[in-house]
Structures are given as structure tokens and as C-alpha cells.
Amino acid sequence: MQASLSLPAEGFRAEVRAWLAANVPARIRTPMPEAEIPWGGRTARFPAEETRTWLERMVARGWTAPHWPEAYGGAGLSAVETGILNEELAAIGARPALFSFGLWMLGPVLLEYASEEQKQRFLPPIARGEIRWCQGYSEPSAGSDLASLRMRAEDKGDHWLLNGQKIWTTYADQADWIFCLVRTDPDAPKHAGISFILVDLATPGVTIRPIRLISGSSPFCESFFDDVKVPKDHLVGPLNGGWEIAKKLLQYERQNVSAVGFGGDRSVTLPALAGRAGLTDEAGHIRDTALRDRIARQMMTERAIQLTTARAQLEVDAGQASAASSVIKYASAKANQHRHELAIEILGLEGLGWDGAPFAGDDLAETRKWLRSKGNSIEGGTSEINLDVIAKRVLGLPSR
Ligand SMILES: Cc1cc2nc3c(=O)[nH]c(=O)nc-3n(C[C@H](O)[C@H](O)[C@H](O)COP(=O)(O)OP(=O)(O)OC[C@H]3O[C@@H](n4cnc5c(N)ncnc54)[C@H](O)[C@@H]3O)c2cc1C
User: Fold this and answer.
1) pLDDT tens, position by position, 139-182
2) What angle do CA 129, 133, 135 make, to 5 degrees?
3) Where is each Acyl-CoA dehydrogenase/oxidase N-terminal domain found (predicted)?
4) What is the average pLDDT across 93-113?
5) Using CA atoms, how far apart are residues 161 and 204, in angstroms rounded to an integer?
6) I need a surface site. Which of 177, 268, 332, 334 has the fewest CB within 10 A?
7) Catalytic (active site) residue 253
8) To 10 degrees, the CA torsion angle through 113, 117, 119, 120?
């Protein structure tokens, strides 16, 4: 019985391994610097021809969204097959072919809530990396208390008319479309008057303004909507039924934001940093045993989170938003922040550089990454809010 179950899976593993051996370009097997992240989109930039080739080859196999049905640009793989594919990609250190909020957050909810017409229209371009999406949830007075959002979508008969503002919209200045939560019934209780809508950012009336951050690199924007006309069929799911979709998408977001390391570039490992800081002996061993112990603990924590995330990802690939998403998000945020604290400590005075000598060069990136990691306990729901979700929904503790 066991043999008949495992044989097809092992056959699939052999097929994947052979295909990867023949198709992964050399550059794709090297660590991916932040500047080379393949975000896709209408104005996609490829740092090298190999990154374009890699995306095209993965798209042709449906492996950018391996578990999505073939009709929507995926490969229709089972959860086990998707797991095998991910393991084989990880085993050779292959870079992702595509990074995308569309793949991680929007796609899964479209599969569950969108009409057949919407699935056929929006999912294949996501899988091919042709449209880059951003997330329009937060507003100036609606963050943790997201259901207080005020951006309006009024029914004007043949279109929706959008007015309002979103904030902290990551990469809105580089995205093509935005998925938004809007208020469609101002008289209903706050959770019951919200809908989920898709908006092309090229529509007249949309203004995007970048927000500058302390880290120097700013993914954030404010997004303004002034009398923006949106076609009626861009509303996903039931009218005023957006809150359920919003919550489901947040689960996917929490899971995926942790899985991809919070935007953190990990191309330089902690032991490598220690080497660069002159803390290793001739054999490459870290001389300070206390530091060695702390780095080993950090690496074990990261590995444990990685394996737990991979297990939860299998549940997601099987079409279930994992109940573990808040636990993973909370733990990953803490671990990532700790990693960057440790990195700065390892680099000593060099770790807190800014523009100009003697801090120019790669070490400067560590300063920026450390500052960026401060947002990990806020994005995708704050740590306090996630602890609350864990208490209520995972542990079943009563509200006070
Ligand atoms: C890096 C990053 C990327 C982001 N990207 C996006 C994006 O693309 N799209 C988008 O829509 N938003 C985005 N956000 C916004 C993010 O979702 C919000 O910042 C977050 O939900 C918190 O909302 P807030 O900033 O209004 O803080 P608030 O909700 O005002 O919270 C302030 C503090 O009060 C605490 N608090 C609030 N309510 C409670 C409670 N009930 N119990 C206990 N403590 C509480 C919070 O934990 C926090 O410490 C991003 C944020 C960051 C940092």
C-alpha cells in the first residue's frame, strides 16, 4: 500500500530533478540580492537575461503557481507534488521565478470567492507575472481596527464610484492593480458593510504618493481615490461580504510574509558576516564561543520556523488557509528582528553606518535591513493583534 502511494511521488521527484538540472540557469542558483527580486508586472525589469528565461520556463510549466488549476495558469499539482517541487528547488538553492502579492495573497482568495469569469481574467496574468498587485487595506484611521475603514464605493448603476484614501500601500508606486476593501453600505454594522474590489491603478482619479522611511528605501505609499470609476464586475464575492474575504486573505498574507523572510535579503549569512567582521580564526571558526552559540541558536530557530512554515504551506497548497498563520507570523517577526539585531552586533561600529565612508558598501545594507525589520511586528497585523488571534482562535481562550 505504502509503495503504491510513494512510487508516483518519487517518479514525480525524478522528473522534477531532471527538468531542473536541464533548465535552471547558473545565475538562478546563486543567492538573490534584494535588487534582483523578480516582481513581474507591466513594467517588469530583469537584471539579467537568465532571470527572464527562468520566469518564462517556470510559467510554461505552470510552476509559478504549481497547485492552481491548469485553466488558470497553474500546473494542477497536488499538495504532495507541490511540496516535492519546493523541496527540489530549495535543494539546489534556486531563486523563486516570481515574487508576487498576486500569487501569495490575491490568487488564493480569487480561487475561492471569484466568479468563473473573474478567475479566467485575473488568475493567468498573475501566474505569468504580467500584472503586479498591491494591497489596499489600511487607512489613516483603520489599521488594527481594519473594519473601521471609510473608503467608499457607491453604486452608480453601471459602475462603482470610489472615494477615499489608503495608506502604507507597499509598492503601490510600482504596482499595476490594487485589491481594496471599500465601504459599500455605510449604514450597516461596520463588518457587514465592506466589499472587496479590484482596481486598475491607471484609472483616472488614482494618485499614488511615496512615503519616505528611516531605512532610506521606502516601499510605502499613500493612495488617493477621487471619483474613481470602477466597472461593476470588479467586485469579488458577495456585495457587503468583503470582510470574510479580507480575513482569509490576511491568513495567506501572514503565512507568506513569514515564508519569504519579510523582504529581508539573506544572501549574506550570520557566520559569513562574522567572518567579514574579522571574528573567525584561520579555519573559519567563530572565535568567541558565546557568539558562536548565539548564532547557532538563531540558525536553529530560523530552520525550525522554516520547516513549520513549509508544513503549513502544504495545508495552504491543499486549499486550506492554515490556522497556524498567526503563530508563524508572530514567531517569524520576532526571529527576523533578532537576526538583524545580532547582525548589527556582529558588525560592531561598522553595523550602524549610513551614507559615505567608512560605512559604504555591503555593510550599509545591514543597517537598512535592521531598520526595515522593525516593521515586521506591524505589517500583516501587529504582534499584539496576532497574540490576540492566537489566544482566541487557536487556543480557544475566552475574551475578558
Ligand atoms: C512593512 C509594512 C508593510 C505594510 N504594507 C501594507 C500594505 O501593503 N497594505 C496595507 O493596507 N497596509 C500595509 N501595512 C499597514 C499595516 O497593516 C498596519 O500598519 C497595521 O495593521 C497596524 O495598523 P496601524 O499602523 O494603524 O497601527 P494601530 O492599529 O494604530 O496600532 C498601534 C499600536 O496599538 C496596538 N493595538 C491596536 N489595537 C490593539 C488591540 N485591540 N489590542 C492590543 N493592542 C492593540 C498595536 O499592536 C500597535 O502596537 C504595512 C505595514 C508595514 C509596517
Assistant:
1) 999 999 999 999 999 999 999 999 999 999 999 999 999 999 99
2) 155
3) 12-130
4) 95
5) 12
6) 334
7) yes
8) 170
Ligand 1 atom nearest 375 alpha carbon: 53
Q: Is the pLDDT of residue 1 over 70?
A: no
DSSP state of 344: H
User: Could you give all domains of the chain from N- to C-terminal order, each with its CATH number?
Assistant: 2-99 (1.10.540), 133-243 (2.40.110.10), 261-394 (1.20.140.10)
Q: How far is the CA of 375 from the centre of ligand 1 (A)?
A: 9
Q: Which one of 36, 81, 139, 253 is the catalytic residue?
A: 253
Q: Look-up: residue for cell 490568487?
A: 107
pLDDT value at residue 47: 85
Q: Which of 104, 105, 138, 247 to mutate to test the pocket of ligand 1 (most atoms within 8 A of CB)?
A: 138
Q: Angle between the 242-259 and 289-317 helix axes, to the nearest 10 degrees?
A: 140
Cβ contacts of residue 311 below 8 Å, gap of 6+?
A: none
